[in-house]
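Q: Convert this sequence to structure tokens.
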Amino acid sequence: MTPSTGLAELVAEWREARMLYPLYAAMGREFVIEMPSCADLEAGIDTPPQESIEMARQWLLDVDSRVQVHQLRQFLQTTTIGSDEALRVLLVHHLTKQKHSDSDRDKIDFLLVQYFSHCAPSRLEDTDVDLEYVAQTLEPVLGSVDLSVPEWLAPLNPLVAEAFACKDLRSLLTSRILDKGRKIKTGAGDDYYQPVAMVAFTRFSFMMRRVFFRLMHQDLNAILDGLRTLEQQGVSTLDCRRAQFSAEEPISRLRMICQSWKVMFHAEYSSGQPLTMLGDLRGVVEAALARTRKSTPARSHAAAAGGGMADVPEFEVSSHVPGIPDDPSR
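A:
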């Protein structure tokens, strides 16, 4: 390495550290994480001495060890970080570490999908999300990738196809598709960091994310439409013990819970219990609808025929990934 090259790299490293510092500082405030101080980064010095760059390098490693994967995920999914460039710098920072822990791998895995989601068009069709397209989008962080897929990655494609065949969120969760994908990922060891593997896992997680949101929206829409129909038929409470609520749960409260779930699942959907409750609640509502149709068929028919509002969903089922989506592969 020539002196000029070394200097250029140090300048670039300091610029990236300055870009990452406010991001980490904000995470520290958000999650009340005790972080060491780094005076030169705080001051935003333009041309620091080399020892300051070395201190900043160590500061970033120290802070990385304090920030948990779920905190990074939640922060980036609920906070605007300002630019794709900041996300790219954060991803490259983790990729270029000399040693990677399991936590580093999970952070990289999430950041790759997050970066791809930021860069990909919002109306990207499912059929366009092939390995070549993902590799092209990730080229700024992974470079040019040889797309010769090793045999151990072959099971990912059938898992994607199986997920798209799921009819509701419960069927996706009970299929264990997400667990199977994660098992392949965690079992890869250092092979995970092969560029083609990171491209393949990014595509897998992105597609799982799309399936998740579509099914989640469908379940919530079905519940909310069902609650509206039940209210029109004079029902005010439901026995929701099956979904871990009360025996006389007010429909108005159930509607509020569904709206809050929509927000929560966008922020962090790896919570298994709320997702199970969502599926159970849909079952409760559908069972109640079936009972009312059986007991008062004429009334139910009139509500279905005359109540135009029943055909209007509470929120649109999107065919694309929301602005800052989650990663269902965890």
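The first helix runs from residue 3 to 31.
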